[in-house]
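Many introductory courses stop at the sequence. We go one step further.
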Amino acid sequence: MRSIITAPAFSTSRTASLTLLAAAVLAACGGSDSSSPAPAPAPTPTVSGVVTATQFVAGSATDPTIKASYYQGAKVCVDANANGVCDAGENPVTTDANGRFTIPMATQAALIADIGTDATNTASGAKVASRDVLRASLDQVIEQAAGSIVISPLSSEVLRTMEANGSTYAAEKQNLAGRIGVTAANLLADVNVVTGADQAAMLAESKVLDNRFTFAITKLDRGDLYPDALAVPGGDPRLKGAANVTQATAPAGDDTRAKITFAQAEQAAFNLEGVPRYDHVFVVMLENKATLSIAGSPFAPKINALLKAGNQLTSYYATGNPSEPNYTALGGADDFGITDDSQWNCDATGDNAVKDLPLPDKTQTGLQNSPFAATCTQAVGVNHNITAPNLFNALSAAGLTWRTYNESINPGQDYRTDSVADAAVIAADHVYAPGTLANNTAQIGTAGLALPLPAGLYKTKHHPGMAYQNVRSAPEWKYSNRTMGGGQWDAVMKNSTAYAVPANYDVDQLGTDLASGHIGTLNFLVPDQCDDMHGITVKGSVAGGATGVTASDCSSVANNVPTATGGAIIARGDNYVDALVKRIQDSPVWKNPAKRVAIVLMFDEGNATSGFNSCCGWNVANSTVAKPLKQNADGSFTPDATINNYTRGNRGHGQSIFGILSNQASAPKGVSDNDAYSHFSLVRTFQDMFQLADPAVDASYMNRSKYTERFIAANIMNLPEFAGSADTHFDAVRPINHAFVAPAGYTAKQSADVTTAAQIGPDAVQTNVWSLK
């Protein structure tokens, strides 16, 4: 077993580094003879070490399975010219079957492992699929010289962040150890010999990092220009003079980008299209309120305060109406023609037939109260069971994790079914005292009102992954769907009689996971229909009084509040969101400054019912000719006519609130981005943030998230819904990165439900809303 050496961090000048290195090696060999008459010149130090690897094993029913490994046949050298290649003149050595190498350190520079496609991962025995380069800083080599130098994705990340931040080895080593929760002594040790929780954390992070570093070399070797085109301030520089592009918003300047360098490629791999990597993102999903209903509302003071405390998108568009198309689009950047809230098995026949059998209906053991209908065929046949690329499958395939946290689930129910009523689960109505809401002196809620648990608090239509067959069939499906507390009936859920209450049932797995740090990379937080501002009818009784009284704060039409503005349901949602955000911000995950964590506050749709309603990759002008595109073997795209009634979808439903909060103290705050974005834009952004796609490969972006202005222009003959667009920038998808700088005379477009004056010209501040510093 190799020893794990602990030593103080070194900060050395280049002139002294080899001397220190030689001294470290000499000390490891037993020192020197002090009786020698004259000191001999310092020998060229020789160091030994290993190049570690990871093997991802797909198909885990829990967290990803990642094994420790080594690279056999990797070249190791001192990268004197810092070009990310072991050149012949740098006298590389090759790792053996145990990943080991021994090499003289004649030059003051970092060690690299140039891992070509002839190298082998020792855990799987498979050849490396794409060239990768891992590094160890000179400071690390000096620190570990007396033992075994470990070149790994973690050592590469320490060096990359040193370069990115102009920081020291000691600082970045400590920062990375704190971010993933391991001891600094183990962070850069051989992951094959570390054990327990530290090894698990090191393997998980190493897998993610190795994906990034491999992608960096892909960008370098194919000669990408730097930065990615859609990260260039002012817009995509490739559009200058392009056909089928609105010239009023196309960049006027030349494309001044140059071929990417190794150093740039390393940084670009963590900042795809200008979107930085986050460790965890929480997306709080709210319902059915347009910008006009929330911005400045006296019933939503807490949400408005959160928006001001963070950053905002002020021109964010929904995909359609009602809820289900929007949630489906959030899962995979298309609604596939769905325009209703019907069950996920509706019109699912032939190639689209449901595969996750048996269906979760009342004939199944333990689901005696299931409301799921085994058959569902509608007059307008639109398949609701989708097999297409989506965020959930993409995250799992990359070794990342996802969660959906849902409030007011019936204990023991199947997540693929709506929740049901339970008369045995009774809670008191919320009561807000008079005058607690600005401009509202009415009492919210009814004192003494007892409310049985109603049906439909949890709805499958509000799950971003529900429509996707390949998500419901994924091995991690049950594990990744979890409960979220904060609801009115939490404390009495244990009284449930609708289904058998599981042993040790946790009504608030979100709270448990926040405390332990066991959250996903991407987490959708879905309140119930009382707390998400959707609203449902909930009736109860007052002891000794009236029966059948409606719960006043769970519906826009209520007993004791103004009904014209829907103040009760907005106030309830405002309070819930405030409490939910505080729970996240009070957690160890958020309070760890080394972790990059964000909270997104958003609504599924606005409430525009006429006029101009949407943007950014949707079905322009209610087109009847739209078809999705499929890629052919030669790389070209042609229409896919297999999706029945596809033209019904992607119609848009107005603008709604979108806010971003970051736990990074140095991140900019108070930034507003007025560029037009949509659910498709958000999916593209997450693909960049978690490195699930390649900006140079259009087909790597799922469904309509690939519909950038350049892609539409190049494929206009197969995208007739975009022909004749008056503003191709507005009609196209782009990542949420604030890169577009509107021309001085450009008037921002708005949907029919926005009454404020349209912005003219660029934003006053052009800072990226996701910026980390």
